[in-house]
Design the sequence.
């Protein structure tokens, strides 16, 4: 039968529209998607792992300087942002839940809520960055730091901007993915039979949340207590 | 709305209640880690912060990312990834820590 649907994509002769010809069943296709996504996330763990390794070594070498530099972080904003990100993980989990049950309106609502929370996180982060830059804490020629810990503090802020910057970049990518999901969800693309993209984006979003769960105590909370 | 008992094919559907419970636990743990940071525990500050972070990460992976209900192969992939992270960190740290042991570097 001549079939114009899905130009460029070959579908199984019989079976759901979303089933690619090289899979036997939707379940097998879904397992392959999950496995691929997790393998990607493992590479992401190692990607961020390199930065966490560098952080650990330098904190080991300059523990006093790192603790001193960390006191320039705004703990209040950091804690609020952690809560914002945890909220966004809840709304993302609920979006995946709604998609799997074929509830279109709740799915759209939860996707939009996740985007709003993600944008709020980035907005707060941008405010923090602006404050650091204003205080001459951006590494480079303009870096200025009073006291005996200038060089280690510059190292701390290099790692801070690299790690939170890479994290923020992942948030922006996630925001883009959510935009696509929202447009597709509006068209009724996801339902009980197939909602894999929502689920895979959920895995990505939760992973980015986990990275922040480690960044927050390591960057904001060291050296808080009085000696 | 609570789950009414109907099940998807080969899919475990987590009830929204579990998600909300994990969400609340994550918020409580965040408050705890922030509060503990202001108490001087010496070297234990870092230990407590990391233990709480690992508990939070485990909650997200197991419940939000559904790994609790995933196949053994999927769990193996994650454990394998963490093992590789352990190699990355472990060998780097052991190199760094043992550099002073040989006179050639001094």
Sequence:
């Amino acid at each position: 039968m001549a079939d114009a649907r899905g130009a460029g994509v070959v579908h199984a002769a019989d079976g759901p529209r979303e089933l690619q010809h090289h899979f036997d069943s939707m379940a097998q296709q879904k397992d392959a998607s999950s496995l691929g996504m997790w393998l990607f996330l493992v590479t992401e763990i190692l990607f961020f792992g390199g930065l966490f390794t560098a952080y650990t070594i330098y904190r080991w070498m300059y523990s006093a300087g790192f603790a001193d530099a960390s006191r320039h972080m705004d703990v209040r904003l950091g804690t609020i942002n952690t809560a914002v990100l945890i909220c966004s993980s809840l709304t993302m989990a609920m979006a995946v839940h709604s998609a799997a049950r074929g509830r279109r309106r709740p799915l759209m609502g939860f996707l939009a809520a996740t985007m709003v929370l993600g944008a709020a996180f980035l907005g707060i982060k941008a405010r923090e960055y602006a404050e650091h830059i204003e205080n001459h804490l951006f590494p480079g020629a303009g870096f200025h730091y009073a006291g005996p810990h200038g060089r280690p503090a510059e190292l701390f802020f290099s790692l801070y901007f690299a790690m939170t910057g890479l994290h923020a970049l992942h948030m922006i990518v996630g925001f883009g993915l959510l935009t696509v999901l929202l447009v597709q969800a509006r068209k009724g693309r996801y339902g009980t039979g197939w909602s894999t993209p929502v689920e895979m984006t959920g895995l990505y979003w939760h992973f980015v949340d986990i990275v922040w769960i480690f960044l927050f105590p390591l960057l904001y909370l060291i050296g808080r207590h009085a000696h | 709305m609570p789950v009414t008992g109907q099940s998807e094919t080969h899919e475990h559907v987590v009830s929204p209640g579990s998600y909300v419970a994990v969400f609340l636990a994550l918020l409580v743990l965040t408050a705890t880690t922030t509060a503990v940071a202001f108490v001087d525990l010496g070297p234990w500050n870092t230990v407590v912060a990391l233990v709480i972070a690992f508990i939070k990460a485990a909650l997200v992976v197991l419940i939000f990312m559904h790994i609790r209900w995933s196949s053994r192969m999927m769990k193996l992939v994650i454990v394998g990834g963490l093992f590789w992270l352990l190699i990355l960190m472990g060998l780097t740290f052991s190199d760094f820590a043992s550099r002073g042991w040989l006179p050639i570097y001094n």
Remarks:
- Confidence is low (pLDDT under 50) at residues 1-8 of chain A.
- The radius of gyration of chain A is 22 Å.
